[in-house]
Amino acid sequence: MTFDRHARAALADGQLRGALRQATTLFGERRQAALATAPDWEGARDRARAIKDETLLHLDRYLDEFSANAERAGARVHWARDAAEACEVIGRIAEQRGARTVVKSKSMASEEIHLNAALTARGIEPIETDLGEYIVQLAGETPSHIVVPAIHKTKRQIAALFAAKLGIELSDDVATLTGAARQALRRRFAEAELGVSGVNFAVAETGTILILENEGNARLTTSLPRTHVALMGIEKVIPRFADLEVFLQLLPRSGTGQALTAYQSLLTGVKQRPEDEGPAELHIVLLDNGRSRMLAAPVTRQSLACIRCGACLNACPVYRQIGGHAYGSVYPGPIGAVLTPQLFGLGRSPELPYASSLCGACRDVCPVKIDIPALLLHLRAEVVATRAGKQRALERLAFAGYAAVMARPRLFEWLVRAARMLRVMPPLGAWTKWRDLRPLAPRSFREQWRAGLSGKAP
Amino acid sequence: MRVSLFVTCLADQLWPAAGVGAVEVLRRVGCAVEFDERQTCCGQPAFNTGYRPEACSLARRLIEIFESSGADAIVSPSGSCTAMLHHYEQLFEDAGWRARARAVAQRTHELSAFLVNRLGVEDVGASFRGRLTWHDACHGLRDLGIKDEPRRLLRHVRGAELVELPPPGAETCCGFGGTFAVKYPEISVAILDEKVDAIERAGVDAVVSGDASCLMQIGGRLSRRGSSVRALHLAEVLASTL
Fold it and tell me: Considering only CB atoms, which chain B residues are within 8 Å of A380?
C-alpha cells in the first residue's frame, strides 16, 4: 500500500504540486513546439521503433558486435547480470585505481543499481555533476523524474538548500545558484580519479557510445579523469551509426523540447596518443538486471524500446498530480509503472500497474510508440493470475459475481430493479466522499425500449 | 440502413437518455434501429482490472449476440465500450474466435463516427439553447481517433454555441479510468478537479461528452461542488429539438 500512502502525501503537498504543474506543462508545450521542427515526426517514430524491434529480436548478436568493436577501439567491456555484479565491477575498478572521489554524469542505470550507496560503502565519494542530480544529492533525496531529477523542487527550495549546504547567501537568482554549483563542482572534477557516465545509445557497428546532455558535465566526466566507466542497460545498443540520425531527432525533442541538446559526445575507445583528449582507460558495463526476461514476449519486449525521454511522465495526468517519488522506484510515471514490476518483480509493486487511468496520453507522446496502456493491462492480468496483489479475495468474488450476473440478462435486470426499488446504494464510499453518485434511472433503457421506444406496441 | 444498438450497461441503467437519444437520432437520419435485449456488459471492467477469463466469457457472449444480428452496423453511444469491442481480438488465442471478434469489431462504430464518417451526416436537425463545451473521452479520442466528428455534429446544432475548454483542455483525462476512480479516489479527483475548474472557467451551460462514464465522473463532481453546469451525453443534445 506504499504507493497509495505516498500518493496521498504528495497530493497534500502544495509546493510539490505547483512545481509539477508548472514544469510538466512547460515541458509539454516545448515538446509540442519542437515536434513542428522535425521533418516527419510520425515517420521518425515508426523508423525508430522498427530499429528497436530489429535490435531486440537479435539483441545477443548486436551486443556481441558492439562489445567486439568497443574492445577493438581500446575499451574494456564488462557484463553484469544484476545490480550487485555491476556495483562490484565498478567498485573494484575504482578501488584498483585508488579513487577517493568519483564524478558522475547523469545515469538512470546507476540509480537503478544504487551505485552511490555501493561506492560510499567502499569509502569512495560519488559526486553527481548534473545540476538536477547534484541538487537531489545535496538534499539527500532521489530523482523524481527520468530527465529532470529535481522537478519536484521549487526555485525557493533550491535556494534554501544551496544556502545551507554550499554556504552561499540566500538567493533565488538562477545565475547565482548555477554559478555556486559550478564553483563547487569544478573542484570535484579536478580531484576525481574516475568518471562514471550513463549511455544514451551504443552503436554496434563502431563500438561508439553516445551521450546527450546540456551542461557539459558529461563531457568533463568522460574526458577529465584518467578512467571513464560507462554504465548502460543492454537495451541501449542500436545496430548502425546511421541509425543515430532518427534517434537524435526524437530524443531531445521528446525529452526537453530541444531540436538538439547542447552537447552530443560520441566516444569510441580510448585516446591513442598522449596529446589526444579523453580518458586513458574506458570501461563499459553492460547491465542486464532483469532486462533479458522481458525479451521473451512481444508485449513485454517493447518495454526495452524505451529511450528514457520522460515525455510520458510529463503527459501523464497521474504523474502530473503526484510526481515521481510516490512510485517508489527509480523509474516513475507510466513507463516506470511498467518497468518497475518487470525489472524488480511484480510482487514488490503489484499496485503500480493500477496507478493509471489508462487514458493513453503516454502512448501518444512516446517517440518509439510503446503501447504503455497495453503493457499496464498485461501486467494487471499477471497480478490477478499470480495473485501478486494483497487483499484481492473480495475483488475476485466481486468479478466472479459480476461475470455470472452479466451473462444472465434477466437476472441482471431483476437485480438492478430490486436495487432501484429498495434504494440500495452500492458501498462506494471511495466515490461518494468526493463525487455525487448518479442514481439508477427511474426507467432503464431496456424498459423504455419495451414500453414503446422499439416502435412495437408494448 | 439497419443498425443494431449497443447501448452499454452503463447507459442502459444510469444514462438511458443516451440510448434513447441515439435511437431518435439514428431514426431521424433514416436508420432502422434494433436492440437485442440479451446484451449486458462488454466486459471492460474485468478486462481493465486484470480479470481476463471473466472478460473473455463476456466477450464471447456479446460476439455471438451481434453475430446473430443481420444489421449493417452496430452503433454505440460510447467510445470506451466501442473501443473494448475493438480490443476483443487480443483476448483470444484461438484463430477462429479472433476472426469472429475482428468481424464484429469491423461492424461496430461509435455514434458520432458512424453519423459523420459512415453516413456523411453532420446536421441531424437538432436544436438546443446554450453554450456547450466538449470533453474528449480518452478511449474515443485515442483508441478510435474520434476528435472532429462530435465537434462537427455539435456545431450544426441550432441555438448551441460550442467553445473549446481552456487548459488543461478537452483532451486531458477526467480521471475516471474505471476501477481507478475508486482504487485511487484522491488521485482521480485531483485530476478531475483540474477538468472541472476548466469547465467552470469556460462559462458554459453544459459539458458534453460521448461516454456516460466520464459524464458520471464530471457530473458527480460538478453537482458536489454545487455548480449549475450540466453534464450531457452527445446523443441527448443531438436528439434535442426545441
Answer: 48-50
